[in-house]
Design goal:
Order of helices and strands: HHHHEEEHEEEEEEEH
CATH architecture of the largest domain: Sandwich
Radius of gyration: 27 Å
CATH superfamily of the largest domain: Cupredoxins -  blue copper proteins
Largest sheet: 5 strands, mixed
Shape: elongated
Helix content: 40-55%
CATH topology of the largest domain: Immunoglobulin-like
Number of strands: 10
């Protein structure tokens, strides 16, 4: 029986790969991996993530490959005899100490550069304050004196109720849409000031590559700059457990051209002025 071990091992590997095949057919690499995003910073974070990932893959292949080769080459059925003498090699210990240090340095340098970029909120062109509530966001445009609340859209809110009789699959962007999205211009460095009124929340849009907590009595900040030509709708979520309706606190950012943004700002100011007159 031991002489058939290699063929049995091959059969087990083939069986495992066969079991994983349906999973790979259903979920593509893009569905499983981190998104590159639509900002220069998110792409930098993605590149850092992939670099560390491939280093881990290479180390895993080396370690497990060596281990599997040793198990097969020195198996008992092949006549291997255990050697009870333990050999010490200073050279080997130096090598396996220096190599990981070099790998860590190669990872640390770009990681430190990225961390510095994440915190560099200088030269921002637009500042928005986001205040978390249970369970909605209030956005205040500090440069334009515009403020509004952004809550779960009515269709999702009705469908989520018990015994509503509404199939969630019939609701577009179920639990991922809001009544009033955050509107920002493309190719503009936007600074977000984050705080909360009641409990800890967190503001996160995956395509922007950043997440920060909104803490009562504190101000956190993050920044993003959506690349030119990447206008559209980007959806996120509060990712800090903030109460029983935590799952119903989506974030929607609408990125528009600079010209359209100026029009939107003018419309908001006109609407506020009309409301004050009335």
């Amino acid at each position: 029986m031991p002489r058939h071990a290699p063929s049995s091992l091959s059969a087990y590997i083939a069986l495992a790969l066969g079991a994983l095949a349906p999973l790979s057919a259903q979920a593509g690499w893009g569905d499983l991996n981190m998104t590159p995003g639509v900002t220069a910073l998110s792409k930098e974070i993605y590149s850092l993530h992939m670099m560390v990932f491939f280093w881990c893959v290479a180390i895993g292949i080396f370690v497990f490959g060596w281990m599997i080769w040793s198990l097969i080459a020195f198996r008992k059925s092949a006549g291997a005899i255990p050697d009870v003498t333990l050999l010490h090699s200073t050279k080997v210990e130096i090598i396996w100490t220096i190599i990981p240090i070099i790998i860590l340095i190669l990872m640390a340098i770009p990681a430190a550069r990225t961390l510095i970029s994440i915190e560099d909120a200088r030269n921002t062109e637009l500042t928005i304050k986001a205040t978390g509530y249970q369970w909605r966001w209030q956005y205040t445009y500090l440069d334009d004196d515009i403020s509004f609340f952004s809550s779960l859209d009515r269709k999702s809110n009705v469908a989520r109720q018990l015994q509503s009789g509404i199939d969630p699959n019939t609701v577009p962007n179920y639990l991922r849409d809001v009544d009033k999205p955050l509107v920002v211009p493309e190719d503009t460095k936007v600074r977000m000031l984050l705080t909360a009124q009641d409990v800890i929340h967190a503001w996160w849009v995956p395509e922007f590559g950043l997440k920060k907590d909104a803490i009562p009595g504190n101000i956190n900040e993050l920044w993003f700059k959506v690349e030119a030509g990447k206008t559209g709708i980007y959806r996120g979520q509060c990712v800090e457990l903030c109460g029983r309706d935590h799952g119903f606190m989506p974030i929607v950012v609408k990125v528009v051209s600079k010209a359209d943004y100026k029009i939107w700002v003018a419309q908001q100011k006109a609407a506020r002025l009309a409301a004050n007159i009335l």
